[in-house]
Structures are given as C-alpha cells and as structure tokens.
Amino acid sequence: MTELGLYTPLNTLKPVAAGIWIVDGPVVAMAALGLRMPFPTRMTVVRLPDGGLWCHSPIAPDADLFEAIDALGPVHHLVSPNLLHYAHIAAWKRRYPHATAWASPGVRQRAASQRIEVHFDADLDDAPPPDWAGSIEQLRFRGSRVMQEFVFLHGASGTLILTDLIENFELARLHGPMRWLARLGGVLDPDGKAPSDMRLTFLGRKRQARACLARMLAWRPQRVVLAHGRWFPDHAMAELRRAFRWLD
Asked: Membrane-spanning regions, if any (predicted)?
C-alpha cells in the first residue's frame, strides 16, 4: 500500500476544545475511482454531560488508545456517520459491550455485502436522540443517490464534525497515485471538498443538499473536524462556503 504522511502521533487523544478530542489512526484501503487506495483515518470523541463518551467513526482498535479512552470515562455510544465508516465498530463493541452502536442509512447492507459482521443497536434519525440531545446537534445531509451522511455539531465548543462530505488531503503527505487521484477528485488542500464521484451523486438533487448546508451554516460553527486530511481549526464558516460552492 502506498505510504502516506500520517498525522502522528497515532492512536493518541488530541484535545480540540473542552470536552472534545480527535484521534488520528492508521490508513485504511478504500475504493476510489475504481482503485483501492490508502486513506488516513480520524475519529472524534465527545464527553457528554453525564460523563459518558460519544465516539464518532471509531478507528482500528489499539490497546494504548483503549486505556486512554477508559481514563476519560465510560464509552456509551459508537457512531457510524455513513455507510463507509463502520468497519471497526464491531471491535469497539466487543471492548465496550454496553455501548450503543448507532447505524447510518444503508450501513447494515454495506457491512453484509463486505462480509463484515457488526451488530447495530439503534438507528440515527433526523433528530438527535435523548442520549445526546442538547449537547450534540445532528443533521442527515440529503441529496445523494448513494450515501446519506450524518453531520454533528458539538454545541459547547462550536465544533462541526464531518466525515466524507469534505476531504482535504495535503499534497506533501501524499505519494504516488494518491497525488493524481486527490487532484482528480478535487480533494487537495487548501481546496478540499467532497470527492468528485460523490458530488456526481447529487445531480438533480442539489436543492435538498443546499437546504442541509443552510442549516449547517445556521449553526455557525467555529471549527470543522474531518475524517480525512487537514481539518479546519478556525474560519469554519468561510471553509464551509468554499467547500460546498459546487452546490451553487
């Protein structure tokens, strides 16, 4: 697999703001434009008011990471934000059997097609469940014929949490085919956005997506965390308007 310049240290809790952390993980092989290419991974952890932890897009299990997580508090929620981000939930569920594993639309079918055994306990919906209502806002980003992604806002810190709706790969961290693939997909920093193949799935349905973007902007986030590539610690509103200009 082509090497990437990863966001080291890996498997380490990195504070974003009070009560929210990111964890950069190893690469995973994902399908992109007909190829199997390596992608860096990143999960987000939020401490809820009851002390429980909300884990967005859990990365590959790691013993040291589990110890650090345990020191933060009990894991209550394991969240699959879209049908591509679920593969490690089964391992986290084995470690934290009392946590609720939340399914995104189509993820059960996707897991079955990939022969990955994972059990989900509940389904994400348009409104946040009582478990985190008042702490984390959520929105089902509609318009794609293929994939609906849930986006979240940690209200206390003003942190918007995205997964694949923006990918922002830094050229210096890419090698070999990933360089031309990222350029072709339109996901190179500083102009990262949804990859071109995903954008095509919104044709004829951009009106729905624009309404979702308007709601995201109404939240007025201060920063944007991404699953792949350089995230945006500031200027969130400007970055969102730039990254979603393809909806105009």
From this structure: 16-35
